[in-house]
Fold this sequence. Notes:
Chain B: Keywords: Cell membrane, Membrane, Transmembrane, Transmembrane helix, Transport. Chain B: InterPro entries: MetI-like (IPR000515), MetI-like_sf (IPR035906). Chain B: It comes from Paenibacillus faecis. Chain B: Belongs to the binding-protein-dependent transport system permease family. The structure holds 3 protein chains of 3 kinds. By secondary structure, chain A is of the alpha/beta class. Chain A folds into 2 domains: 47-161 and 328-394, D-Maltodextrin-Binding Protein, domain 2, CATH 3.40.190.10; 164-326 and 398-439, D-Maltodextrin-Binding Protein, domain 2 (3-Layer(aba) Sandwich), CATH 3.40.190.10. Chain A has helices at residues 2-35, 58-74, 91-98, 110-118, 129-137, 143-146, 170-176, 185-197, 210-221, 243-257, 270-278, 291-299, 313-319, 341-363, 382-391, 405-417, 425-439; strands spanning 47-54, 78-85, 105-108, 155-156, 164-169, 201-204, 282-288, 303-306, 322-326, 331-334, 397-399. Chain B has a domain at 62-230: MetI-like fold, CATH 1.10.3720. Helix content of chain B is 76%, strand content 0%. Chain B contains 12 helices and no strands. The two termini of chain B are 37 Å apart. Chain C is an all-alpha fold. Chain C has a single domain, classed as MetI-like fold, CATH 1.10.3720. Helices cover 75% and strands 1% of the residues of chain C. Chain C starts with a helix and ends with a helix. The chains are: A alpha/beta, B mainly alpha, C mainly alpha. At the B-C interface, helix 1, helix 4, helix 5, helix 6 and helix 7 of B face helix 1, helix 2, helix 4, helix 5 and helix 6 of C.
Amino acid sequence: MGKNYRKALSLLTATxxxxxxxxxxxxxxxxxxxxxxxxxxxxxxxxxxxxxAQHFDExxxxxxxxxxxxxxxxxPNVEIILDEAVQDGYQKLKTYAATGNMPxxxxxxxxxxxxxxxxxxxxxxxxxxxxxxxxxxxxxGVESKLVAPDGHVYAFPYPGIExxxxxxxxxxxxxxxxxxxxxxxxxxxxxxNKLSAAGYIPMAIFAKEKWITTAFYxxxxxxxxxxxxxxxxxxxxxxxxxxxFVRAAEEMYKLKEANLFDAxxxxxxxxxxxxxxxxxxxxxxxxxxxxxYSSTEKxxxxxxxxxxxxxxxxxxxxxxxxxxxxxxxxxFAVSPSSKHKDVAVKVAxxxxxxxxxxxxxxxxxxxxAIKVDKPITVEVPPxxxxxxxxxxxxxxxxxxxxxxxxxxxxxxxxxxxxxxxxYTVQQFVDNxxxxxxxxxx
Amino acid sequence: xxxxxxxxxxxxLWIYFVISVYPLVWMISYSLKNNEEIFVxxxxxxPTHFRIENYIAAxxxxxxxxxxxxxxxxxxxxxxxxxxxxxxxSFAIARMRWKFRESARLYMTVGMFMPLQVIMIPLAILVxxxxxxxxxxxxxxxxxxxxxxxxxxVFYGFMKGIPGELEESACMDxxxxxxxxxxxxxxxxxxxIATVAIFQFxxxxxxxxxxxxxxxxxxxxxxxxxxxxxxxxxSTDWGGMGAVMTxxxxxxxxxxxxxxxxxxxxxxxxxxxxx
Amino acid sequence: xxRYLSNKKAIxxxxxxxxxxYSVVIIYPVLQTFYRSFFNWDGLSAATxxxxxxxLDLFHDPLLITSLCNGLIFAVVxxxxxxxxxxxxxLACADPRIKARKLLKTAYFIPVVLSxxxxxxxxxxxxxxxxxxxxxxxxxxxxxxxxxxxxxxxASIIAIAFVNAWQFMGYQFSLLYAGVKSIPxxxxxxxTIDGCSKWMAxxxxxxxxxxxxxxxxFIVAITSGIGAFVQMLIMTNGGPGTSNYTLTFMxxxxxxxxxxxxxxxxxxxVLVSLSLLATIVINxxxxxxxx
Lengths: 441, 275, 291
């Protein structure tokens, strides 16, 4: 027994040693492999491209499959290998970058692109012919989705500038006796009181996700005069929140104190909040314009959306053209280490365009980055028609985006806190000012 | 009278029994409900309508047998290696006499505190450099390393408590050190081995983070990654997730129920050796 | 005997495999982390030397205070619940007078077998202020106390710590149970012959003999309190605001959400140092009690 054991032990030690030795040797050979990058492309041979894109439910899989099918017609020699991305804050993509294992094409957001740009993990697309072509096809007002604040192009976007709406249940409003649309803060507070008294949750919000509280606050900010958006908070030398932001925070505080939101709001996820609205427990719901599809499906003609309220009717009317959404670059980017870079750029641009085409022709969404010249093939929900006819043509201004991640996170934290009873405007302002003072000096 | 008193004294034990078993029942009910029942109409009760479709969805979304097999291979091999390596290591620091054994113990402890989030990227690079990407080794090697500190410390505690006379008598009997380790020390710590084995196996079986970051190859994925198939862009299919979690956990519970009997037996053997 | 137990070849043979794999996979990244904590680094591009600036910033970071307090609360809840209850249940299950001990013992371990995600989902439902069982239990018992468990900046951390404590109690329990079982019965018999009651005998004989087990249980409970993370991530995502942040949550935020890797490394160094310190203090305290 003892002998056997000793044998096993030495075998084990040998294995572990061998393993680690192989590892040491491995590092070198790996590098050799990488530098020996044989660019045997060209001709009509099959080109394989690895694409890292979201493909996990109907909303993400359908446009991808549509775009890939179209690509097959256009470039039959390109084969797409899908690497399925999930919503993980691009952690896996960053690991790919750190291990030098980047996919040829990947779909990502502005924060990640910024990091990648610094580390040269994203191809600068400025001088590619596809970029000029793409620029020419852009919809009005969405240049900021393509051209980054530093003047470079890093990715081909597919959606236009998305924004948030307040959805409401007409039936409940009628029953409780609230005049629509709600135009002023005071009317909103009154509505909130009436709805709570009647046993409804006035407004469902999935505030477990912080971006939605930031979006709600953004809606209020756009109704105050004298700001162009969150971008104002990262101007060099600005160490205190400008007035319109403070006024918007005061209004948000009043709305919270009027019980506009459920006590459990900051621990409510999307599925719970939408269930509240669709089951008739909540009278209003705040979410992006994409919610139009499910709300039409669930509530039919009982649901409509309204503009954000303002301090008085005049401000309400003049604020209608100020959209509470901002365009930040994002979409399909190309890795500089791709073996077929030129093809990859072409494919990235193609995929982005086909995504937009899908959203327009199959969903009737006018919010796409590029103009689509094909007809809509489906019946467009009336709420979406209102967006196309009422909002987009009259949009005078979009919010300026914020690039500084620290300030952005401070806003996210503080707006979520704003829904908590007892959290004051002063705390809100102090917390954001502290971060601004550090970042903008 | 006395019986009533004992019953009353034992009541809390049974209350805690219910609190411990309920989650199992809850998880299975959860996997048979849809989102509305889970969040609004029936969060705690048994399902009124058995939604088998959650399981069908889970079955059709991904290759459950393959994922299951991968989980089994990775978890078993890792657990086995952890046990062997940490028993040896703890024996050396708990029973053998040399200068730096306290430092060796402290050295081993450090790794217990390191959050995965930080070593993730260096680890991914290591896995690449060792050519382990998309092999079982990509998970087994990190799992073994991560499991070691914890297991070593448990075994250390148990080995430390063994009376020295046992070693002396073994020494007198002329057994060499390896034989003493295998025939005297290991049997005595069997209860601890059983506990550590269960815990490490569970840890590896349920591990998500590393499996997610280090494995991209579909044929190498482990069961917890199946959860990803139910997270939509906006909405999540919680019932479907429940089904995956039930598929992943139920076999463990059943194995444990059988295994705990073995543990009990092992313990009796263990104390017999001691006596 | 001494020569027998200081067999150099055997020591090396026993130590080497574990040391090797552990050093390469864990210690090497740990050292890297320590080194990187002196850099301004986003995790990908070239790092620039930053001296101790990360640490200076860290000590002015309000998140650090929040995280330390939460870690402390977490640790206290874990110690009290897991070790307190774990001891009582372990002694009870080792008592031959209790019926169906095997069944109880198995049941107590079940929460450990379930995945953290399942357990967190269950407790999110339990803590729901209107539909949740906890608030309903209070009103059922006519206690006029209702709490927004997971949205209150103060109550939520305790509520979450409790979930962790409850789930992994079974683990501490089984360690303690194994500890109780490994004590030779003669010791117990001797004590009862001396006229001690069963519980007194435990207090005087069993518990002191289980010193090493307890030492380990304390280390696990306290350090996992300081480093807690997953439960917050799932149950409240650190909120409302940042009220549920812990050191690991800070690391997660700085490394992955803000791409401030160097700073995240500095937080990690603080986390590891604190945990080590706690371990050393626990070791010293237990060893002093012995003397």
